[in-house]
């Protein structure tokens, strides 16, 4: 379907793309070729090779469709994968690794959505980082030029050959072909770090896990692992913290939605990190995104659903909602403290929330039940992740609808 | 099997996102087993600890080795880039091991079977 032309012209050192719109051959499709020139000096495997390597990608992209790009930022071990599974589930169809590809690929593909992991844009592999004494959190370990070029290309409907960072070996594997999907999710440590990449995002989410909860989650994740101890888990979090604070945390100011996970306030001095208080911070004035609200939009509300109509067990459930300011932006904040013990509690809560972009009554509950084995299905993390998934579906539908109505205007947006 | 909780039966036409790639199924029934719902959703408080399978051996070895390396690297100078990078490697490998465990779990035939047949004898779980 695509006609590929390999260009051997001299390209500038970072990246060039050559677009050659040819005569429409297949129902108005355009033929685009993009050639990425990539510095490979940082690649362990090509150290000895003096010649630069060229990545050549050819793709036929539908001229009438544009990819909607979503960014998800969070530290490692903070629930990005769970969120991705919830999000792709909202769109229907299971997300799976590319068939017949590298078994260590970090990509997930479903009918509508492709999720790529930004670790694939590491410019330094594990050995390189060790030699230079930098973490993966450090921008110097990441190739933002290539990240920008490839996300831009995908957004414009052009397939790319994306590198694969192998988390098992710590090496960069040969690239995989990524075709422009309807929805592209870029998840990782730095989706909002580089302003050029940030400007490509139609919507962005930051998962903000408080130190207490992060520690509790990593204990849960790693304690059974041989070689690990409480001390090693703590040491790892503390060693990474300066880079995390410098390069990852500041991205939350750019996010359209932040999911903040904190220890509960329902149990005094709770340090277990099992009962959680979760905030959904939603930016006002974002195109195609209208924040969820409780009872009365814009008012400040505190709500304990447990009472005569609904019985909850200890420590109960508490919601708060209201307008607030976040890094100088006007936001709406919805907070849930506590956890659901029974199905009717979840349904009761869902029926009292407004603007959740469901397509039928009980859709949030249905999604939560479908994945009741995922972490957080009984608390605010699962609830808000599901709601954000529904809001993204709504955003996607609005963007595609607005484009078909006013194509000229939509290109700008 | 078809027990519903408090008369709640979620049955709804599944609406696929605009794509229309997936033909909408007429009905998506969710059957709720009160006890299984309870168990799955409250593992926090009820302390149902799911068995943690060891990650594939190769990764487990790597995690253990990386922890040791980090401890060594930091014994000389805890503020050095070398020390920080070593602990970052520990995090990366621990996350990879955890993902590998999840992958293994989801490819477990018994788990899959029990998702569909939670009432079967072989799918029973017990609490101490």
TrEMBL record, chain A:
Protein name per its UniProtKB record: Phosphoribulokinase
Domain Phosphoribulokinase/uridine kinase: 69-267
Molecular function terms, GO-annotated: ATP binding; phosphoribulokinase activity; protein homodimerization activity
UniProt-listed PANTHER family: URIDINE KINASE
GO-annotated cellular components: chloroplast
One example of a Gene Ontology biological process annotation: reductive pentose-phosphate cycle
Keywords for the protein's UniProt record, in alphabetical order: ATP-binding, Calvin cycle, Chloroplast, Disulfide bond, Kinase, Nucleotide-binding, Photosynthesis, Plastid, Transferase, Transit peptide
Pathway membership: Carbohydrate biosynthesis; Calvin cycle
EC number: 2.7.1.19
Keyword ATP-binding included in the entry's annotation: yes
Protein source organism: Ficus carica (Common fig)
Compartments where located: Plastid, Chloroplast
Family: Belongs to the phosphoribulokinase family.
Any Pfam family hit: PRK
Automatic annotation (TrEMBL), chain B:
Keywords: Disulfide bond
InterPro entries per the UniProt record, alphabetical: CP12-like (IPR039314), CP12_dom (IPR003823)
Entry's Gene Ontology cellular component terms: chloroplast
Pfam families: CP12
Disulfide bonds: 74-83, 114-123
GO biological process, one term: negative regulation of reductive pentose-phosphate cycle
Span of domain CP12: 59-128
Name of the protein in question: CP12 domain-containing protein
Source lineage: Eukaryota, Viridiplantae, Streptophyta, Embryophyta, Tracheophyta
